[in-house]
Amino acid sequence: MPYPLDTPLGRFGIETLQESPQRCAASIPAGGMLNPVTGAPTIAPLAMLVDHVGGLINHHRRGNREWTVSSELALELSTGAAEVIASHPGVPVVGVSRPMGRKGNAALGLCELSVDADVVATATVRSFYITAPDGLTAWPDGPSGSLPGSTLAELMAVHVGETGGAATVLVQRADPALNNSVGVVHGGVASMGLELVGSAALDGSSDTGFRTASLRVNFLRPFHGGGEAHYLAKPLHVGRSSGVAETQAVGRDGRVAILARLTAYR
Fold it and tell me: What keywords does the record list, in alphabetical order (predicted)?
């Protein structure tokens, strides 16, 4: 099932292939996307897919008058994942999620991502359950909207920010098409932003490129785009073989809304 272009899922080409409380599957076109900071190929769209398919399996386990809010996302990439994606132009990455363990006040979705027969990543999404809020944004009725461009920066409504220090910054402009049903920046969009600045911070601190190996995200509070909203990353460790970066999504109110840690290897 494709989605309208003026929704986060539709903008990034996600299609839901199957959904039930036992198994969900979805795809995203990930080949050819470039990091707007470095200009290098990026695996960031995989975080968008994980947030969707992992959150969807948790959402299908909700009870009457319950709603889900993502609290954690963890993405683990196989060695050579970027090369596999690049070698299959036009082939979408497919994510399959299943419930892991029991449902309580929170639930965990376990995901596997693949390109054809090659598994490129595993991931988890943890969601907690709240009372379904009033005033959810109405879903568009039928196909609607248009794409703002074809580059990842255009799709995400981001641009490289000025910084006088060692930090890497992407500014998150306001765009209603990037918001979820409760009116804040979609968790998958924000996770992509965190991966982009985190990987760029490590590449900018080394002579040899790093490849993202893992991304671990903690959603702290709603993240609103516009104003001073931005993604920020600083390298914590840059070694001969590995690097670690700390990243933040700072909302338009100046508060840190999301934290993540990215680990990469040469």
Answer: Hydrolase
| Domain boundaries defined on the chain | 8-132+152-265
The string of DSSP letters for 221-245 reads S----STT-EEEEEEEEE-SSEEEE
Amino acid sitting at position 70: S
DSSP code string of 171-187: EE---GGGB-TTSSB-H
Dihedral of the alpha carbons of 176, 185, 89, 212, in degrees to the nearest 10: 160
What whole-number distance in Å separates Cα of residue 55 and Cα of residue 52?
A: 5
The pLDDT tens digits of the residues spanning 167-224 come to: 899 999 999 999 998 899 999 999 999 999 999 999 865 556 899 999 999 999 999 9
Q: Which stretches of the chain score pLDDT less than 50?
A: none
Q: List helix spans (H) across the chain.
A: 8-11, 45-59, 81-86, 152-156, 187-203
pLDDT of residue 11: 97
User: Which has the closest alpha carbon to 45: 25, 31, 59?
Assistant: 31
Looking at domain 8-132+152-265, which CATH architecture does it have?
Answer: Beta Barrel (2.40)
